[in-house]
Specification:
homodimer; alpha/beta; 434 Repressor (Amino-terminal Domain); Rossmann fold; six-stranded mixed beta sheet; 12 helices; elongated; DNA-binding
Chain lengths: 332, 332
DNA sequence: ACAATAGTTGTAATCGTTTACTTTTTATCT
DNA sequence: AGATAAAAAGTAAACGATTACAACTATTGT
């Protein structure tokens, strides 16, 4: 394996000059630059990253810590992050916390060990609550989850507003007894719940909300319970794609059709939402944009460590489909 | 930031001893071990990975190069890989090729630069065709895609057999004019096509297959075309989850119901397959197992570089659902 | 009690770059 | 042409660990 000194020898320059052309266009004459490039080419030289990182104390690596890669929202976000990262000659280390604060802590420690240039994090609730930028030796940008009090760069959906709009839309459709199933473990679930409560209160309606672990199975179980009760709700709303999936499963098991027996709506426009039944009304998130905005924020923060804290809030988009068409002459 | 010599000083030992206890249980007395551990604890010392990697020439990093992270199959595989990797104190660098051989080449070069301990790759067709283990300075384990000629560790589904079984099942159900839409760019699509052809030939039936880029949109377009033709097939089969999704979309657009107007089946048991219409019959892949088997193979290969090449073939599982129930008195 | 041996510990070289500092070359101005 | 400034190139010291090798200590057998 060729080393920098081999290149230097062949190009008849010093290693410093080689390093300089490697680094970019700093103070070397075009002639030597060419000679060096040619030597690099000829020897198929590739700099040793470990050595470079040791000496320069930079890794050009970013950590991406998501709470559940199986959630298509995060899949799409990570895709965007990777695309942009590699375009900016950065590497990405991907980690999955499964909403487990311990794992999250482990990975954050790992990031410190790796001496990453920065981290993108979708924090668990406890991590968010105690989040201090100064606790980390690297820049952190939050994605998807952030609350009012947190001082940190972040990219999020307008969760409360989106939920408010979705619920208000359902109310306008004629639904009254709207039940809301939301993720218990995330700030996002809470904020969407908040929007739900506000919307219901504005229209003088009683709320019927339930927090569950953000998994398909938990949502399915909770919905089954709800449905079994004597007083069936008008409509069911899930606070994210996984939960919505659980709701659909529960309805199917109970042999309930939407919108015939109940209205249905949720968050996240997943591939299947337009295919089941008459299509499901959802609040769509601009997932790729969210990912892109996040890494841009991080790259800027890395470049300018002391720039003011920024928060990017993207707007959800309502996609009306058949699942929320109120049935004429519906009983309750 | 504390360094190893600070630890050595505090524990009143040499840096070599500290390094030894860090490395494991080699030739240090329990007493000094304790002193060192205590010092490490007290100083909150964490070894510098860049320095370690430079000197030891090992990175404990594996590269995971998948062709499309948005395909739930690969999402699940990567989850398994990560779980296992971190349990074995390895890091994972995730890369997406989008089926683009150029990107793939770029990432493989990157892996070389990173001096990874090993790589898990789902190769594009051209990469597979010219694959030579000896072209790489690191062990490579293939996942999902591999053909008979390739000499490499690999974990794959029994693609041809699974397809054969799925098609045979449909034939037994009474379907005759079975159209097969498969991914053009992957070995997997080809092999499943092969199984389809064999099954049809065995029963003296004519084939009607079409290769498309493995995207939802391409599959949708191809299926729309097929449907528009005068002679409608009996049944449609998609060679993977993305393609199956495209088929469902096309049928919906054309207002065709399954199984009433056509039978439908495919590969990959995605979250939504049991929810659309009467549920879709699929050949399910043991995705998590595939991921797990893959990284296990890689870790073993890393530990024993010259062990014989191994191939793990996992069996697909047929999940019969409503979409493939032949209708009595169906016209053609 | 002494030699041989096995087991611990320490010293210093090494991994392959980047970069501070010094020296040389080139360009500019009078 | 000579003095001065600016630019380019070179030398060698880091970066922070691992590890070959040397040195020292304790154990064992006779």
């Amino acid at each position: 394996m060729a080393q920098i000194k081999d290149v230097a020898k062949r190009a008849e320059v010093s290693v410093a000059s080689v390093s300089r052309v490697l680094a970019g266009h700093t103070g070397v004459t075009e002639a030597t630059r060419q000679r060096v490039l040619e030597a690099i080419e000829a020897l198929d030289y590739r700099p040793d990253l470990a050595a470079r990182r040791l000496r320069s104390r930079r890794t050009d690596t970013i950590g991406l810590i998501v709470s559940d890669i199986r959630n298509p929202f995060f899949t799409e976000v990570s895709r965007a992050v990777e695309d942009m990262a590699y375009q900016n000659r950065m590497r990405v280390i991907l980690c999955n916390t499964d909403e487990d604060p311990d794992k999250e802590g482990f990975y954050l420690d790992l990031m410190r060990d790796e001496n990453v240039s920065g981290v993108i994090l979708s924090p668990t609730l406890p991590a968010l609550a105690r989040f201090r930028m100064s606790d980390y030796s690297f820049p952190v940008v939050l994605v998807d989850r952030c609350d009012r009090e947190t001082t940190a760069d972040a990219v999020v959906l307008d969760n409360a507003d989106s939920a408010y709009r979705l619920i208000t839309y359902l109310i306008k459709q004629g639904y009254r007894r709207i039940a809301f199933i939301h993720g218990a473990a995330s700030a996002t679930g809470r904020q969407r719940h908040e929007g739900y409560v506000t919307a219901m209160a504005t229209h003088g309606l009683e709320t019927q909300a339930q927090a569950v672990p953000a998994t398909v199975e938990a949502a399915r179980a909770a919905a089954s319970e709800l449905i079994r009760e004597s007083s069936l709700p008008d409509a069911l709303v899930g606070s994210n794609g996984l939960i919505l999936l659980g709701l659909v499963k529960a309805l199917r098991e109970a042999n309930l059709q939407f919108p015939e027996h109940l209205g249905l709506a949720g968050f996240d426009d997943l591939p299947w939402t337009q295919l089941v039944g008459p299509g499901i009304t959802v609040m769509a998130q601009p997932t790729y944009d969210i990912g892109q905005a996040t890494i841009e924020l991080l790259l800027q923060r890395i470049a300018h460590p002391s720039q003011p804290v920024r928060r990017v809030v993207l707007r959800g988009e309502l996609r009306e489909r058949g699942s929320s068409v109120r049935q004429k002459g519906s009983a309750n």
